[in-house]
Amino acid sequence: MSPRKLDLSIYGALIAAGILVPLLAPAFTSQMAVLWLMVLMAVTWDMTGGQMGYNSLGNITFFGIGMYASAVVQIGLVYDVAEYTSAFGAIKVDFTEDQYWTGLFLGIGFGGVMATIFAMIVGPFMLGLRGPYFAIGTLGLAVAVAEMVSGWRYVGGGSGISMPVFPGAAGTGSLVFYILLFALAILSHLVVRAVLKTRFGLAINAIRDDEDKAEAMGIHTTRYKVIAWMIPAFFMGMAGAVFGNMSGFIEPLEVAFPTATFGIFMVAMALLGGKGTIWGPVLGAILFHIIKEVTWTHLLGWQWVALGAIIIINIVYFQQGILGWAQDRWPALFGLTVDERMTRTGQAEAAE
Predict the structure, then answer these.
(1) Which string of b and e fits 89-124 if b means at least 16 CB within 10 Å?
(2) Cβ neighbours around 79 below 10 Å, total
(3) Which of 136, 121, 68 is nearest to 229 (CA)?
(4) What's the rounded Cα separation, in Å, for the pair 28 and 83?
(5) Contact 292, 311 (CB under 8 A)
(6) From CA 130, how far away is CA 135, in angstroms rounded?
(7) 230 touches 116 (CB < 8 A)
(8) Which of 11, 40, 77, 138 is buried most deeply by CB count within 10 Å?
């Protein structure tokens, strides 16, 4: 099977699974919605971490910004946000169905835009760091933003903020949010895949391989790095907006900016599946989510030990990930060719 046909088959299988699962197993709709969220996180993280070589530990920042931006829009269209989030007095605001849907879709778009703008503003400063300094810097950024939001009383501070109640029948909301996250996951993969096949993709790969040489060849590295960070920010912001509504209640540390969970999970998923590959992050997200659900169900109390062990084994002994290992073993299946002449030359030189 050609690589193109293989890609189409995988897309077809994912879309079929996305359509059939809520029909065949409606009780697992929420868990599957989280699966698509994790696919989106892994795919978008890999654009900078795998394809460009900048390992961010702070992409969860965009997720939280999108969540809060959406909340402000959805509530602000109907009521004063500061009064709505006030800790004094029980305030109940009834959103009509039209108000809810208008606010939801405007909020999702606004969440993506605000996260993108934030990435554009801080990108030139953060992306001036390299290696572990960039990773630690982005982690510090996520923690700092979460703490700032915790003290921002306009959006509820550490007390959090309740999202508008879904107007449909019980159970309908989880299906709607499932569809939105499923669509965003597929769209994010299509966009990232299309971008990587352009000159832009070649440029960020050059930055990953040797940034100094790329800059010497005339590539405006800072511009490419910032744009490569803005694309994941856009999708993470929209995903945060959807997930905030799906949760029904958001607060800074555990829901909007969960650095210790989703912030680490997205990195682990990309590494597990195969960092720097097209389908590796998707595979890693699916496997990681299955393992997470099983350990949370059957190894309660030991789930973090199990997940930690998987991450350590992956990083220490299996750095290329599942798909990276498969590409090394069966290169033709992935459209990779080996120059036999160069191979023989290398073998001869090694023998000498």
Answers:
(1) eeeeeebeeebbebbbebbbbbbbbbbbbbbeebbe
(2) 17
(3) 121
(4) 36
(5) no
(6) 8
(7) yes
(8) 40
CB 262 within 8 A of CB 60: yes
84 touches 91 (CB < 8 A) = yes
According to DSSP, the residues that pair with 175 across neighbouring strands are none
pLDDT of 90 strictly over 60: no
Please name the residues in contact with 115: beta carbons below 8 A apart, sequence gap of 6 or more.
Answer: 62, 63, 65, 66, 69, 233, 234, 236, 237, 238, 240
Q: Burial-class residue 303 by CB neighbours within 10 Å (0-12, 13-18, 19+).
A: middle
Question: pLDDT for 248-283, tens place per residue?
Answer: 999 998 899 999 889 999 999 999 999 988 899 999
**Distance between CA atoms of residues 133 and 147, nearest Å:** 21
Distance CA 132, CA 56 (A): 9
**What confidence tier does 342 reach under pLDDT thresholds 50, 70, 90?**
very low
Nearest 5 degrees, angle CA 140-CA 143-CA 148? 120
Confidence (pTM): 0.90
Long-range contacts of 11-16 (CB under 8 A, 24+ apart): 11/186, 14/186, 14/282, 15/186
Which candidate, 251, 269, 264, 231, places its Cα nearest to that of 35?
269
Q: What pLDDT, in 10s, does the model give residues 12-42?
A: 989 998 999 888 888 889 899 999 999 999 9
Give kind and range of the element (H or E) at residue 210. helix 199-216
Look up residue 79 and give its amino acid. Answer: Y
Query: For residue 128, what are its two tokens?
Result: 């001036």
Tokens of 7: 């890609």
CA dihedral 149, 155, 159, 160 (to 10 degrees): -90
Query: Is pLDDT at 343 greater than 70 in this prediction?
Result: no
> Domain segments of the chain: what residues?
3-259
Q: Is the pLDDT of residue 115 over 80?
A: yes
